[in-house]
Amino acid sequence: MLHAVNLTKSYNNHLALDQLNLSVEPGEIYCLLGANGAGKSTTINLFLNFIAPTSGKAVIDQVEVAKDPQAIKKLIAYIPENLVLYNELSGLENLSYFTGLAGMKYHSDQLEAFLDEAGLQGEAFHKRVKSYSKGMRQKVGVAMAIAKKAKVLLLDEPTSGLDPKASNEFSELLTRLSNQNVATLMATHDLFRAKETGTNIGIMKSGQLVEQLSTDEINHSDLEKLYLKHMNA
Amino acid sequence: MITQNIQHEIRLLSRNYWFVSLTAVLLLLCLYAGHNGLQHFESRQADLNQALADQEEKIQNVTSVAVAVNNGEEPSNAYRLSPMNIAMSTGELATMPPSSMSKLAIGQSDLFTHQVKISSRDDQATLSFNELNNPVQLLFGNFDIAFVLAYLVPLIIIAFTYNLRSQELESGRLKLLASNPIKTNIWLLQRFVIRYFSILIILSIALLLTILWVGIPFNFALLTFMLLTFAYVAFWFGLSFLVNIIGASSGKNAVSLLSLWIVLVLILPTVINQAANTIYPMPSRVALLNEIRETKKSLSEKQDQVLDEYLRNHPELIRDEGKNAYGYWQGYFASQELMEEELAPLIEKFDNQLAKQQSWVDSWRFLSPVVLFQDAATQLAGTSSKNHKDFQNDVKDFGLTWRAHFMPYVFQNNMLKLSDLGELPAFSYQPKPGYTAAYINLGVLLLLSGLFAIRGLKLEGKRQLLQVG
Fold it and tell me: Which parts pass through the membrane (chain B) (predicted)?
């Protein structure tokens, strides 16, 4: 579903991403781990076509992202670290606007059902987003992905700053979506969440993917050791 | 996408207290400016009415004398029927009545005279129009509707558009938006177009309320004024759209747009006008006045000679009684024509320089949207320098007609009869609304806004969302 083929990005002689190769199949949750500047967000931005690759290609559903970004964006949903919505609008109104931009038309009861499915409390639907916590805003982001019927979910440190309960709820939502065959690529610093939620883990350092493994192959403690080993190398 | 964006913008604007407050402020500004325009109109109308009433009284007095003479009476004030008295003392009042559109754009009407007493006492070439300098230099004038539209509305547009893109980018929301199958250039253009129409609706309501209040009839000139306003607003939206796309941050956009406002609205018109004064300097007015005095003095000293020369040129005015039949007044009237001939080159020099200045300003007006707007608005209102120049020319032409009418009476030494009073030349000024200039300026404003939009669309369409530089 989602493939990086020798994907490379450099800025003014600085190599942000170096010959990245990875694949995420439907139902998989691929967690990219790494320090700041390792190239995780660059990878996500390349799959979103926010930046152009220097060489190599990002492919989603057999279509090269750079060649037909509009077609690709119909398939993907994106949740950044801080999901900034329109503060003066309610969660429902935000969802209505963003799904409208995605070309989907829903009645308000359908939109409410998506918010409900994403775990947002009913009384918050019509409240202005400026009163929402970060966790509530992330749930609106998940509702967008559900409403958009996204095949690919791109997440850039979505649980950063969430309390453990909200973070756990978010992980459960991801698992539910992956059970519906959504392919997820998530950049994160959270080793625990990566091991709990992910199906595959990739460790990045200085723009390179230095380790790839299945979460079934490793426990929490060994994952931490492996991660630190790469970081200290 | 357009439906979503319309609904979205309406929601955002209706919940934006700044927008709601500024709408109220705009309405108040328009009403206050309309009030100023109305006051100016009424004051000018009252001046004209007073002057016309005075003139009517003079004519009534003369007519009553003529009626008495006609009835075979010999009134003591029969001298009032002398051609000299009627040509010089009674005279004719040339007026330039304010159009109702002048309530919207006072323009040059408070700088120029709008009523002139036509009298053979003055030489028509040097009528006391005091604008023998470039009138456009006083563009920044009254607080009227045209001022609100030309100077303040662009600031309101800047306030509501300077960060439409940058705010989304800085907050990170643009990435969320752009993760959807939309083209950000089209999305941004739609937001601008929706805001343009929002401002247009508010502005139209404010203008219509003002127009109804001050009492301007709905006609073609008013429709053109409204279209001109819409084109001017479109120019500023187009400029802001381009700056939004070129600009890097909200702060830089705001500074850039305000700098452009200062340059386009304040600096360029001043520079254009100052350059006109520098390149085509006006000859000294003191020198002109001295020349007029000298010519008058010299002609009065040789009035007999002047009269002889005049009669040689106008043999139809010679009476049989011989040279002794002519006195002071015949000499006076004859010398006026000669004086005009002698002063013509000097006056022409003034007129030429003024025409060159005006032509210079006209050719460079495309550099500044505010000059384009003001020029067209005042022409539609009949208060532009061109309208006043037309009035001056009509007055000068009529002055000559007026004097020529009395020449046979003066030289035949005939008193005017009751029937002659009905045949006196009457002045009438026909305003010529500058529709052509207005539509050219309107077209240029629309063209510029279109070019800005196309350039912006291309720039935004070509670049990556997170492209640096």
Answer: 16-34, 145-164, 193-214, 220-242, 254-272, 438-457
